UniProtKB/TrEMBL annotation:
Domain EAL: 460-713
Designated name of the protein: Response regulator receiver modulated diguanylate cyclase/phosphodiesterase with PAS/PAC sensor(S)
Stretches assigned to the PAC domain: 235-287
Modified residues (4-aspartylphosphate): 51
InterPro entries: Biofilm_reg_signaling, CheY-like_superfamily, EAL_dom, EAL_sf, GGDEF_dom, Nucleotide_cyclase, PAC, PAS-assoc_C
GO BP term, example: phosphorelay signal transduction system
Every Response regulatory domain range: 2-119
Entry's Gene Ontology molecular function annotations: catalytic activity
Protein keywords: Phosphoprotein
Taxonomic superkingdom: Bacteria
Organism: Methylotenera versatilis (strain 301)
Length: 713
C-alpha cells in the first residue's frame, strides 16, 4: 500500500514517513501540493494525507485537483491540519471531497487505525462518516513521541554540525601548515606521470618520476628506479629537472605509494621542496674550502694538493717544477691610506695582471694577504726567468684605485724542483726565502733560491733559539742613554736600551736580534722583560735616594697589538711602586698604522693610566699629524735619519725645523735623537729643539754609571 504525504513542515513529514514506513506502508512525501500532484499523475497511490497550509499549492488546492481528476478522484484524501481546525474549515474540506479531516497532533495509535480503515474502505466511505472529528473525536498525536523524535533529530543535527565544524577547522589547519611550509604536494598516476599540485615549480607536470629518478643525486638513479618499480616509500631523494624558463631546479622529494581498496597500486602521493639555493650554497661552501673568496684563486689547501701532485708527476716524467712566491711591496700602506676596500681591489687587479702573463698550465694560488704562489709544471728556470721579468714589468704601470693612481710593485722568489729540494713543503719555504731576499734587495725584483739563502734561514732559526735562551739565562741587560737640555745639559730623562751579552759571540747588536724577535711573539716576552727590569732598576735607584728622571722604554708594534700589554703595564709598575708618570712609553709611528681595536684599546689604557707617550721615529710615517691628534701623545722624537742628513741635506734641515715648529704649535715635547757631533747639535739647537740625545752628549751607560747624571736628594 502506498501513501502520499504532502506536508511542508520537515519534522512532521519525517515523523509521518518514519511511522508509516514502520507499519509497512510505502511512502512518497512532498513539501507542497504542486509536487504531490505531479507525482500523482504518474504514480498510483492508495491514500493521500495532506496538510492544508503549504507553499505553492495548499491542501485545499491539491484536494480540488485530485477530486476533479477522473483518474485520481477515487483516491481517499485525508486532511491532517494544525492550522485550519474550525468547523467551517472542516466543512469546506469535506465539500471538496475529502475522506477525513483530522486535527494535529494526534497520538500514533489513534492515527494509524484511521489510516488503515480509510485505505481498506477505499472510496466507499461516505462523506458523513468521514469526519475524523465526529467519528473518532479529536485525535491527538503522541506529543511526547514527537518531542523525542525532534530531540533526537536536533541532537543528530548538532552532532553533524559539530563534525562539519571540526572538518572545516582541520582542513584550515592543514591548509595553514601547507601554506607555511616550503614544501608542496604532488601526485602521480600508476604510470608514474607527475601531476604537480599547487605551489610546485612550473613545468614539473611534464615529467614522470622515472625522468626524475635518472637525475637522482642523493642516491644512485638505479636505486631510485628500483624503489619506484617496487612501489616502495621513498624519502628525501634529491633530483633535478629543467623548469619552464629553462632553469635547472633541484628538488628534494618524498613519496608514498597509494593503493586502492583492492590493493592495486594507483600512483604516488608526496611532498617536494625546491632545494636549488641550498645546493648552490653547498657548492659555494665546497668552493670556498678550496678557493679564495676575493680572487677566486685556489687557496692554500688546494695549492698544497696541486704542488704535491705536480711533484709526483715531475718525478715520474723526470721534469722540473718551478715554484714562484709573489708578495706585493708595501701593500699595507694601500690598506692604511686608502682603506681595506681599495686594498681588496688592488689584490684583484694584481691577480689579473699576474694571470695575464702566465701559461694555461700554470697554477696561480693565493696563500693569504698579499702573498701569491704559482706552480709551473714542466718548465725550466729560463721559463720562470722570462715570466718573472714580464710580471715585474707589468707592475710598473700604476693601478687605478677609486680614481687614485697607486704604484705597487712586486717581489718574487723562485725555487726549483728537484734542483733545490724534492720536498714540496721545503720548496715553498725556499721560494719564500728567495722572495724575502728580493725584499731585502730593495723590492720590485726577483731572486732564485740558493743554498746560501738556506744558510741564512738556519742562522735565523739559531738566533730565535738564542734569544729564548738569553731570556732564560739572564743574558739580556739594559743601558741608559741620557736625554738632556741642549742649553745647559740638564738631565731631562733617560732611555732604556736593550743589550744582549752572548757567552760566545759577545755583545750582539739589538739591530740584529730585535728584527728577528719581532717576527714572533718573542718580542712580547722581551718587552715584558724590559718593563720588569726598568721598574726594578728605578725602585733600586729610588731606594738609594737618587732623583730619578723619567725613563723611556720602547714597545714594539707587535706588543702594542697584544692582549698581554695592558696586564703588564697594570701590574709591573705597581709591584715596584713606580708612579706611571715616571715612565714614557715609546711607540713607533709604524706601530700605530695598525688601526685596529686592540691597538686603540691599549693606547687608551696607556694614556688613561698616566704613562707618557712618545712617538718614536717621527717623520718617517705617512700620517703623522693624524696620530699626534688621535693619540694625544706627549712627546715626539725626530727620526735619526733626519739628524744624519742635517750636514748634507737642506731638505732634512727644513724638515727638522718644520717638525720642531709643529711640536711647538701643538705644545708637545720634542727630542732629537742620534746627535753625534757639534754641527748637528748646533743646527738642532738653532731649529728650536730643546731636548737632545746622542753620542755627542753621552753614549748609553750601564745602570751603575748613569747615576752620575742623577742628582742626589
Ligand atoms: N685589503 C686586504 N688586506 C689584507 C687582506 N689580507 C691581509 N691583508 C693585509 O695585507 C697586509 C700584508 O702586509 P705585509 O705583506 O705584511 O706588508 P707590506 O706592507 O706588503 O710590506 P712588504 O711585504 O714588506 O713589502 C697586512 O696589513 C694585512 O692586514 C685582504 O684580504 N684584503
Amino acid at each position: 500500500m502506498k501513501i502520499l504525504v504532502a506536508e511542508d513542515d520537515e519534522n512532521s513529514r519525517h515523523l509521518l514517513e518514519v511511522v508509516l514506513t514502520s507499519k509497512g506502508y510505502e511512502v512518497a512525501s512532498f513539501d507542497n501540493g504542486l509536487k504531490a500532484l505531479a507525482y500523482l499523475k504518474t504514480h498510483p497511490v492508495d491514500l493521500i494525507v495532506s496538510d492544508i497550509l503549504m507553499p505553492e499549492m495548499d491542501g485545499y488546492g491539491l484536494c480540488r485537483e485530485v477530486k476533479q481528476n477522473q483518474y485520481l478522484q477515487k483516491i481517499p484524501f485525508i486532511f491532517y491540519t494544525a492550522t485550519y481546525t474550525s468547523d467551517q474549515d472542516e466543512r469546506f474540506a469535506m465539500s471538496l471531497g475529502a475522506t477525513k479531516f483530522l486535527v494535529k497532533p494526534m497520538m500514533m495509535e489513534d492515527l494509524l487505525p484511521v489510516i488503515a480503515k480509510v485505505i481498506h474502505a477505499g472510496d466507499q466511505a461516505s462523506p458523513q462518516e468521514s469526519s475524523g472529528k465526529s467519528h473518532f473525536g479529536p485525535l491527538r498525536l503522541d506529543k511526547q513521541h514527537a518531542d523525542i523524535m525532534r530531540i533526537k533529530l536536533d541532537k543528530k543535527l548538532i552532532e553533524l554540525n559539530e563534525e562539519k565544524q571540526k572538518l572545516i577547522e582541520s582542513e584550515a589547519r592543514f591548509r595553514d601548515f601547507a601554506e607555511a611550509s616550503a614544501d608542496w604536494f604532488w601526485e602521480s598516476d600508476a604510470q608514474l606521470k607527475i601531476q604537480a599540485l599547487a605551489g610546485s615549480p612550473a613545468g614539473l607536470g611534464f615529467y614522470s618520476l622515472v625522468d626524475l629518478a635518472q637525475t637522482c643525486h642523493s642516491h644512485s638513479p638505479s636505486e631510485m628506479l628500483e624503489t619506484l618499480k617496487s612501489h616502495k616509500h621513498f624519502s628525501d631523494y634529491v633530483v633535478h629537472f629543467i623548469d619552464e624558463s629553462g632553469k635547472l631546479v633541484y628538488l628534494r622529494v618524498s613519496g608514498k605509494p597509494i593503493f586502492d581498496a583492492d590493493k592495486r597500486f594507483i600512483g604516488y602521493r608526496g611532498v617536494g621542496r625546491d632545494v636549488s639555493e641550498m645546493i648552490a650554497l653547498n657548492r659555494r661552501v665546497e668552493f670556498l674550502a678550496s678557493h679564495d673568496e676575493l680572487t677566486g684563486l685556489p687557496n692554500r689547501n688546494l695549492f698544497k694538493q696541486r704542488l704535491s701532485h705536480a711533484v709526483v708527476k715531475a718525478s715520474r716524467t723526470n721534469s722540473q717544477v718551478l715554484l714562484l712566491f709573489f708578495d706585493l711591496d708595501h701593500f699595507k700602506l694601500v690598506n692604511d691610506t686608502l682603506g681595506h676596500e681599495a686594498g681588496d681591489l688592488l689584490l684583484m687587479m694584481a691577480t689579473k695582471r699576474i694571470s695575464e702573463c702566465i701559461r694555461a698550465s700554470d697554477t696561480l694560488c693565493r696563500l693569504g694577504g698579499d702573498e701569491f704562489v704559482m706552480i709551473m709544471e714542466d718548465a725550466s728556470p729560463q721559463d720562470a726567468h722570462r715570466l718573472v721579468r714580464d710580471i715585474i714589468a707589468k707592475f710598473t704601470t700604476p693601478f687605478e684605485l677609486y680614481q687614485q693612481r697607486v704604484y705597487c710593485t712586486i717581489s718574487i722568489g723562485v725555487s726549483v724542483y728537484p734542483d733545490d729540494t724534492v720536498d714540496p713543503q721545503s720548496l715553498l719555504v725556499f721560494a719564500d726565502l728567495a722572495m724575502y731576499r728580493a725584499k731585502q734587495n730593495g723590492r720590485n725584483c726577483f731572486e732564485f733560491y740558493t743554498t746560501n739563502l738556506n744558510f741564512i734561514a738556519h742562522q735565523w732559526l739559531d738566533m730565535e733559539n738564542g734569544i729564548r735562551h738569553a731570556l732564560k739565562e739572564n743574558q739580556l741587560f739594559l743601558e741608559y742613554q741620557p736625554q738632556v737640555e741642549n742649553t745647559n745639559q740638564n738631565l731631562i730623562g733617560i732611555e732604556a736600551l736593550l743589550r744582549w751579552q752572548h757567552p760566545e759571540r759577545g755583545l750582539i747588536s739589538p739591530l740584529e736580534f730585535i728584527k728577528i724577535a719581532e717576527q714572533s711573539s718573542l718580542i712580547n716576552q722581551i718587552g715584558d722583560w724590559v718593563l720588569e727590569a726598568v721598574c726594578l732598576q728605578i725602585r733600586t735607584w729610588l731606594d738609594q735616594a737618587y732623583q730619578v728622571p723619567r725613563v723611556s722604554i720602547n714597545i714594539s708594534a707587535r706588543h702594542l697589538r697584544s692582549d698581554s700589554l695592558i696586564q703588564a703595564l697594570k701590574t709591573v709598575p705597581a709591584k715596584y711602586q713606580i708612579p706611571t708618570n715616571m715612565l714614557c712609553i715609546e711607540i713607533t709611528e709604524h706601530a700605530l698604522l695598525d688601526d685596529i681595536d686592540i691597538v686603540k684599546k691599549n693606547m687608551r689604557f696607556i694614556k688613561e693610566a698616566g704613562f707618557n707617550i712618545s712617538l718614536d721615529d717621527f717623520g718617517m710615517g705617512h700620517s703623522s699629524l693624524m696620530y699626534l691628534k688621535r693619540w694625544s701623545v706627549d712627546e715626539v722624537k725626530i727620526d735619526r735619519t733626519f739628524i744624519d742628513g742635517l750636514q748634507n741635506s737642506e731638505e732634512d734641515r727644513v724638515i727638522v725645523k718644520a717638525i720642531v715648529a709643529l711640536a711647538d704649535a701643538l705644545s708637545l715635547d720634542i727630542v732629537a735623537e742620534g746627535i753625534e757631533n757639534q754641527f748637528q747639535a748646533d743646527i738642532v739647537k738653532a731649529s728650536g729643539c730643546k731636548v737632545v740625545q746622542g753620542f755627542f752628549y753621552s753614549i748609553p751607560l750601564p745602570a751603575a754609571e748613569i747615576v752620575r747624571w742623577f742628582k742626589s736628594k
